[in-house]
Amino acid sequence: MKDIQSEPDYRNIAINKVGIKDLRYPVTVLDRNRGKQHTVASINMYVDLPHECKGTHMSRFVEMLHLFRPNIALKTFSDILTQMKEHLNAESAHIEVSFPYFIEKQAPVTHCPGLMDYTCRLVGSINSVSRVDLISEVIVPITSVCPCSKEISRHGAHNQRGMVHLRTRFKKFIWIEDMIELVERAASCEVYSVLKRSDEKFITEKGYENPKFVEDIVRDIAVDLNADKNITWFSVAVENFESIHNHNAYAFISSGERPRL
Q: What is the pTM of this model?
């Protein structure tokens, strides 16, 4: 059968990334407490396309995933990226894996258990000289109490939920749970899935006694990361979904060099 994608293109324009997006696929990730956790990921895979090539072979992306199933994890990214380059005759390749990760958390007073889900991402790329770049990301919900509101109010202070995006490069393996806990420590209080009245009282009072601006949260996280010799690069973004303003509050810090992806 005629292969249109392999025919030459005469527009003389290379494409940086071409591939597939939002492919749902079962994956197994490492779990600090249970060893492994099975989840379902959304996967993006791309390669570059030279100016003389008309198209890439989309089906080969899925074929390669099936070869590595179910071991699609950070430790296998280098092999997957190398195979993508070879099978698609590309100079560079990229893969992004996003998945929900579940952690059982007990309420702070009643100790009622509940599952919290966190969005995690693994991002990898390989360039023309086979240099591999890997980034791990966690997206963590938090709560914060406004220090200014507490200072100027006779009673109470406004508080809100926020979201922290933490991306890291590292020398040795880091647990997802460690990065989540680092973020939660920097908030006014962490978020739980199950709370009784005594738990609500505890976290309300804890947050009130620990007010944080987005600037405070992003800086506190950066302090911990700067002290960790295993972390070679990070970026952290905090966004508060303000409860009394018609806008969100935002802060961002990136360390050292920019991401190479």
A: 0.90
